[in-house]
Amino acid sequence: xxxxVGYEGAKNCTDGPQPGSRGMMQWFLENYRHLGGTNLGIYxxxxxxxxxxxxxxxxxxxxxxxxxxxxxxxxxxxxERLRNSSKEIGIQxxxxxxxxxxxxxxxxxxxxxxxxxxxxxxxxxxxxxxxAKKNSSEVITLLNTHLATEPDAPQxxxxxxxxxxxxxxxxxxxxxxxxxxxxxxxxxxFAAGPEDGVFGAGTEAAVKRFQDAVGTGVDGIVxxxxxxxxxxxxxxxxxxxxxxxxxxxxHLQRGLRAAVEHGLAVDGQxxxxxxxxxxxxxxxxxxxxxGIVGPKTWEALQGGR
Length: 305
Ligand SMILES: [Zn+2]
Hints:
Elements: H1 19-32, E1 38-39, E2 62-66, H2 73-84, H3 86-89, E3 91-96, E4 99-102, E5 111-112, E6 122-127, H4 129-133, H5 136-146, H6 176-187, H7 201-214, H8 224-235, H9 247-259, H10 272-284, H11 295-302
Antiparallel strand pairs: 1-2, 2-6, 3-4, 3-6, 4-5
Zinc ion (ZN) binds next to strand 2.
């Protein structure tokens, strides 16, 4: 167990992730996925956020190990064990949970990190060039040799909540999480446009309409509350009833108009007229006519009327 000394800054973007970086990600997912570990990426030709120097991600030498729930104790445990064996593995820098350790200041331990991204949702781990160029299996062997593979038991999050297993997404963000948002918005009837993983104006507008409908603050940013609403909506069967309002109700009203009540206004207000139309629809489909749009009524409406 020893601490790495030295730091090789990034110069120019390469054309993809280095093999050693792939090995580290593979090892992480194999050992931490069951605790909530995810792959938040390796290669990305960009500058350091808020700066002008090339990010180590541009050389494919930095891996972002996603930690859920954010700030989880297993992330802290992993960060410390990686640091303690950073020399053997070839790790030159780690950023985690507002702390940074760097081989440029090897004996200073964890220092406060004030970068724009607070890194509570992932460990940013940088490899030396020597480690990055090793093949994947070599790096996996090094990790298995120098780190005990059994992570500490996961600690319960400090504030128990079903919310926010995912990092905040906002306009300008790209990737799989944005695609997830777009897919769900489209599925729930909030037209977000193409599911291309690019958080543009159309996605932002759809997020705002969704937020308006579910009663979270309307800011167009998918933070913990909006994520929770997006993720639980399906399980809850997105029930609508008298008094509900918003785009989802419009979506419902369009379905009702086509099916039973051609004169129904599409105004997004679940009023008495809408309730009557729901009951009429439910009767026509042999469903219990309670006037509440739960999973069964939704399913019937969506599955061709
Ligand atoms: Zn990173």
